[in-house]
């Protein structure tokens, strides 16, 4: 048997490789937040009223400086023998500070460390995703307002249905994203509670101050029940991924529309050429690969949300190593959502609507409902009007497209869109992002003694 020595004992190499998995790679995403959590923990330990202080003020400053150096170290790495970011940081700190580094783990477990790291990581990424979501919503609303008077055939079952507008189409997806923001905010608030101090899930025989560490880290409050603080691991990631899957659902449907409506047979929209790819054999091809990949990645994020949920569903109470399997889908789901929001914002910024093709898409049948309503206004029961129009569809060819659009002027219809209301909605959400981001960065900057920005 060949074994490797780790901080927690000797482990057979095959077992070490199997249990560590790709944590050394994934955990590089957690180096900064792990150090931030350790600074807060050390600060709290230095404030405990004990006969013999765990950390003096000078000790704490040395620990904090050592952890800040790790955050700023571009060459930091995690080995299989380290197993994870927590042990790697502790080892590096011990190499630098000796016994002070060995004290840093007092009163905590890797269980509450990783739960904390993932919540801090999730918090930072959710702030980014909220901003990216808002950026795309603003881009779609700009496109919608610029084309609010441009007619577009509204479709059901993909078949021509009723007169509509490009403004209605684009603001539909923008409003969907503004709704998705509500879910992101709920996920942010769910995530915004501190698990640190729960240790292995059952607390420690030390009068630690969990409210202090929660406040130092910019959380709204600590999770009270220490066992639930452990049990919420995985559940929290599932909640975040579920919110992201709704964004990706919206992006996938928008992408599908763009793929269809940019086909030569429709030509309603022109996707910028530099956002399309060519063929290795067909010189004429300009393919909407960006939209196709978003569609595929949406399915993956849905799957990641399911993986997180299903792993947690099968677990007994308390920590279980299965939770490690959630880390990769969690991080990949976040990265995919961020990437898709960013690239779609850039695409929408250059998207063009083709007036001639949009007008050419109108056929006589599209005006059928409008004509039926005309008869109803003149006193005919709707079902009679419906039957009458059904027998005279060919006579509707000369109906005025713009007149039909202008008649749809009630709240939320093509000519009843309130872009000032949309602007207020966006502004209130931007205010929320600015406030939580400013508060978090201020707290972490104060904790670390350096400027910390996202």
Structural commentary:
Helices cover 61% and strands 6% of the residues. By secondary structure, the protein is mainly alpha-helical. The protein has 3 domains: 3-103, Fumarase C, Chain B, domain 1 (Orthogonal Bundle), CATH 1.10.275.10; 110-138 and 164-359 and 419-448, Fumarase/aspartase (Central domain) (Fumarase C, Chain A, domain 2), CATH 1.20.200; 364-406. A two-stranded antiparallel sheet has the order 1-2. A two-stranded antiparallel sheet has the order 3-4. A two-stranded parallel ribbon has the order 5-6. The two termini are 46 Å apart. It has helices spanning 13-20, 23-26, 31-46, 57-72, 85-97, 99-103, 110-146, 166-191, 210-216, 226-231, 235-261, 289-313, 324-350, 355-360, 368-377, 382-390, 401-406, 419-448; strands at 3-6, 9-12, 151-156, 159-165, 193-194, 221-222, 269-270, 352-353.
